[in-house]
Amino acid sequence: MKGVGEVGGGSLSTLAPVFAVVFATHQPLYAFFAGLATAIGAGVSMAFSEGLSDTGDVTGRGSPYQRGSITGAIIASVSAALGAVS
């Protein structure tokens, strides 16, 4: 359930550059690429932060690779979907 809670921060940080590109260029294709790039960046960032937060031994939340992969995929996919909608 932690991945769902983190979607808010990742998706909001993805929308700001998209709107900035739209405002500056008025080109939908440029906005699409900006949104895709920020979605991938948000996913990678969240994956690293989740994977490095703890080893999972004490909390029992699973391995860092598993948690990081799941969190990164959730953030990247939801951010990309929100960027495509906007």
Beta-strand content bin: under 5%
Helix content: over 70%
- Radius of gyration using CA atoms only: 14 Å
Helix and strand composition category: mainly alpha
Mean pLDDT: 75
Number of domains: 1
Summarize the model shown:
With 86 residues, the chain is an all-alpha fold. Helix content is 84%, strand content 0%.
Summary tags:
single chain, 86 residues, 3 helices, 84% helix
Can you give a write-up of this model?
The protein is mostly helical and 86 residues long. It has one domain. 84% of the residues lie in helices and 0% in strands. It has 3 helices and no strands. The protein has helices spanning 2-25, 28-53, 64-85. The longest helix has 26 residues, at 28-53. The protein is elongated. The model has no long low-confidence stretch (mean pLDDT 75).
Secondary-structure topology with pairs:
Blueprint: H1 2-25, H2 28-53, H3 64-85
Helix pairs in contact: 1-2, 1-3, 2-3
